[in-house]
Write a structure and sequence with these properties.
The protein has helices spanning 53-61, 67-74, 79-95, 102-110, 113-123, 126-140, 146-151, 154-164, 168-185, 190-199, and strands spanning 21-22, 29-30, 37-39, 49-51. It is mostly helical and 202 residues long. The relative contact order is 0.09.
């Protein structure tokens, strides 16, 4: 709690006036504006408790994975935590078509997940790189995420990972993600095709 200086969602700075509030579901710290809602947490609370806006939507839909918890792990300094967070979201995105539901797309944008994935591709190691490639590949398989990722220049980040990765597993995941971009995200998108060409992609 003492280490949290900004809202997990909006990045607004905490002050004497802008107080901290904990989401009782994901455990992250939010501003009042980002955590006004309440919800019952299955297996934890019989009465509604304060939750952040993103977790409220997830609890209402019955999503199987808490996105804020996994994003917090991906923002961690721990390489194993970053890998675990990306792996959990990758598994969810790959198996559940609900991942392209409007509320989840909005949460992905609000949490700046595409930007975070590209950051992991640039700074991660080992299992983190593999998990980040798999998450990118699973998400761009849905056309709803295409423009979001192209804006973050994902093709170039994946191509760099493909060239520099030492692991065959990471290289395979990067190729799969690039193939999904080519097939879905860039199929009818001149900007996407241009990025793939300049990145030396598929």
């Amino acid at each position: 709690d003492d280490a949290a200086t900004h809202c997990f969602l909006t990045d607004v700075k905490f002050t004497m006036v802008q107080r901290k509030h904990h989401c009782r579901y994901c455990g992250q710290v939010f501003s009042n504006e980002a955590s006004k809602k309440t919800a019952k947490i299955p297996g934890k609370s019989s009465e509604p408790v304060r939750v952040c806006d993103i977790c409220h939507g997830q609890l209402e839909r019955g999503d199987p994975v808490c996105m804020c918890k996994q994003v917090a792990s991906m923002r961690s300094a721990s390489e194993s935590a970053r890998a675990a967070g990306a792996k959990a979201l990758a598994a969810w995105a790959a198996m559940d078509p609900q991942f392209k539901e409007e509320g989840i797309i909005r949460a992905v944008e609000d949490l700046r997940l595409p930007e975070l994935i590209v950051h992991l591709l640039a700074t991660g190691e080992g299992h983190t790189l593999t998990a980040a490639c798999r998450l990118a590949g699973a998400m761009v398989a849905y056309s709803e995420y295409g423009e979001m990722f192209l804006y973050e220049r994902l093709p170039a980040a994946l191509a760099d990972t493909l060239r520099s990765a030492g692991s065959a597993e990471t290289k395979t995941a990067a190729v799969h993600a690039l193939a999904n971009i080519a097939e879905v995200g860039a199929r009818d998108n001149a900007a996407g095709r241009s990025q793939l060409r300049s990145a030396g992609g598929v």
